[in-house]
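Fold this sequence, please.
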Amino acid sequence: MKALTLLSLLSCLITANEAKIFSRCELAYMLHEEGLDGYEGYSLANWICMAFFESGFNSAAEDDNADGSTDYGIFQINSRVWCNNYRSPTENLCHIPCSDLLSNDITDDIVCAKRIVRDPQGMDAWEDWTMHCKGRDLSEWVDGCDL
């Protein structure tokens, strides 16, 4: 009986750390609650559009780059500048291990994204945002979401 209880507890802990693919409105609600709507002048729709084109709303997304760095998490935060993957040189300006950006708890991702967007590049730091979202009508990204 004790083994079954321990197994159930471990299963819950593992499930809590699993990645998640968010729905558009679920992510919009979360980012709104964390203060991203209007943060540094960028609407919530900009954040949702960027997250879609960077990761497909997948909190466990990883992408290796030609320079040896890797992009992590729902916002595809780069290891060369923002987080430490312990494999390639980094400035680690967000002061976090990149692995923290891969769980279904995206609080660390949001904190780091806020740090990134405060730099002079703003959201231009994300190439996919620049290509797919910048300067466009993005209202569809939050339409129908109960915020």
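The radius of gyration is 16 Å. The mean pLDDT is 91.
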